[in-house]
UniProtKB/TrEMBL annotation:
Protein keywords: Membrane, Transmembrane, Transmembrane helix
Organism: Streptomyces ochraceiscleroticus
Stretches the record annotates as Disordered: 121-146
Protein name, per record: Uncharacterized protein
Ranges of Basic and acidic residues composition bias in the record: 129-139
TM stretches of this protein: 26-46, 52-73
Length: 231
């Protein structure tokens, strides 16, 4: 594993998935209108001469909607450089968004690589999944689909490496292929990236992993957690 400033980046022909940039655009589309709506009511109050009661509502409106819009804009902005990429060297991601430091796990350091999927949360027992879009309620809806790359390094994981240590999968996976060790790195693909690039991410990982690829596997709901995602 190597790391460095952005000059140590994926190759020009890498398959790059800039989910941070795409997510930032999505949050701006929601955040900016919210801020504008928050400002609009106080302006209307000045123009029309609102009374005391109307101004109390206007202030609450401004604080609530303005804060929500500002929060959306900030969340998208701070992660705007986040990405996942694959090239002949390995798997790349933005490790440190403040210092803009990349992380990479080289293919040459791996015995095997694959992918697992699961729902974020299980459905309550005894309740069937609703398929009619007219039906309301969320009690039987599954959470978003989560996806992670499972990377099995030659010689085991390196718990002393500060970039790699957070990626060590701590859970046991008895369903993994029998010839693979228990220790592995896990790169959880963010939900936004899964929704927008899901099949393309899998295809890029599979093609670059080559003979190391052991396939795609389903796991029970809840096997992956939000904490496993890289952003």
């Amino acid at each position: 594993m190597t790391q460095g400033p952005l000059s140590a980046a994926p190759a020009p022909d890498a398959a790059v998935f800039p989910f941070g940039k795409q997510r930032n655009r999505a949050t701006l589309r929601g955040g900016i209108p919210a801020v504008l709506l928050a400002i609009a009511l106080p302006i209307a109050g000045v123009v029309r001469g609102y009374g005391v009661g109307a101004w109390i509502f206007t202030v609450l409106w401004f604080l609530a909607l303005g804060a929500a819009g500002a929060w959306m804009i900030r969340v998208g902005w701070v992660d705007r450089h986040a990405y996942l990429a694959f090239d002949a060297t390995g798997v790349w991601w933005l490790h440190d968004r403040k210092a803009r430091v990349n992380g990479v796990i080289p293919w040459a350091s791996l015995d095997a690589a694959g992918l697992i999927r699961c729902a974020q949360r299980p459905e309550p027992q005894g309740q069937a999944r609703k398929t009619d879009p007219k039906q309301k309620g969320t009690e039987s809806r599954p959470g978003p689909r989560l996806m992670s790359l499972e990377l099995f390094p030659t010689g085991g994981v390196d718990a002393d490496e500060p970039v790699l240590a957070p990626l060590i999968a701590r859970d046991q996976d008895p369903s993994r292929p029998a010839h693979l060790p228990e220790q592995r790195y896990r790169i959880g693909v963010p939900v936004f990236a899964t929704r927008h690039y899901g099949s393309a991410v899998v295809a890029a990982a599979r093609s670059h992993a080559g003979d190391r690829w052991f396939g795609e596997h389903e796991r029970p709901a809840g096997h992956l957690r939000v904490q496993d995602l890289i952003s």
